[in-house]
Task: inverse folding
């Protein structure tokens, strides 16, 4: 029987760890993860990106 594994990128794993709800839409041809995030969570994402980058 085939085993199905869900792929999760580093950013998605980090968001899960910090309780930010999102959905992974997959990866582009360069392996960059594409995410869907609710508009009410954008402030949290902006702060995270500012601190991390």
Result:
């Amino acid at each position: 029987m085939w085993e199905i594994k869900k792929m999760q990128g580093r950013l998605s794993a980090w968001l899960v760890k910090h309780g930010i709800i999102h959905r992974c839409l997959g990866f582009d041809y360069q392996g960059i993860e594409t995410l869907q995030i609710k508009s009410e969570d954008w402030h949290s994402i902006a702060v995270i990106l500012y601190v991390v980058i």
Observations:
- The mean pLDDT is 78.
